[in-house]
Amino acid sequence: MGNVERSVVEAIADGLAGRPLAGFEMDLDGIGTFGRGPAVRVVWIGLRAGSDGAGALAAEVDAECSRVGLVGEERPFQAHMTLGRARARGGSALPDLPPAPQLEPWRADEVNLYSSRLTKAGAIYEVIRSLPLFP
């Protein structure tokens, strides 16, 4: 959602709490990156299963953001879990990475809205609200 006031995030959470948000099965896939050329900004792991469910959930969040006046994301949604970010603004060279972990598939049954506070030691995350996802 970006840098927005807590009351706006609470309004979005309230709107989402009134919607029947669907849970979905998730299964990890391979490692990927965001960034151009040798300047990698983000390392992520994709989903083999669950992209459609995650995309539907992202569309619900985007609709609530629009309802309160926030501008929606222009880039197409890409379901992923961020593993790490480069500290350098333009990104950094990517070292050799281990293979993706082999985990059993699991069910996403809640969504958490976080706030993040950036510090010199790294980001500090706080859960603002947890919302159930229904079967």
Keyword list:
four-stranded antiparallel β-sheet, Cyclic Phosphodiesterase, Chain: A, alpha+beta, 135 residues, two-stranded antiparallel ribbon, single chain
Describe, in plain words, how this protein is organized in 3D:
With 135 residues, this protein is an alpha+beta fold. 21% of the residues lie in helices and 40% in strands. It is built from 2 helices and 6 strands; from the N terminus they run αββαββββ. The strands form 2 sheets. Strands 3-2-1-4 form a 4-stranded antiparallel β-sheet. The chain has a two-stranded antiparallel sheet with strand order 5-6. α1 crosses α2. The protein is globular.
Which stretches of 5+ consecutive residues score pLDDT under 50? none
Q: Which structural class fits the helix and strand makeup? A: alpha+beta
CA-atom Rg in angstroms: 16 Å
Helical proportion, percent range = 10-25%
Q: Do you know the CATH topology?
A: Cyclic Phosphodiesterase, Chain: A
The assembly state of the depicted protein chains is single chain
Q: Report the CATH superfamily.
A: Cyclic phosphodiesterase
Strand order of the largest sheet: 3-2-1-4
State the end-to-end distance. Answer: 26 Å
Assign the CATH architecture: Alpha-Beta Complex
Biggest beta sheet summary: 4 strands, antiparallel
Average of pLDDT: 88
> Number of DSSP strands?
6
Number of discrete helical segments: 2
Which descriptor suits the 3D outline? globular
| Top-tier CATH class | Alpha Beta
- How many domain regions? 1
What is the strand content?
35-45%
Give the ordered list of helices and strands: HEEHEEEE
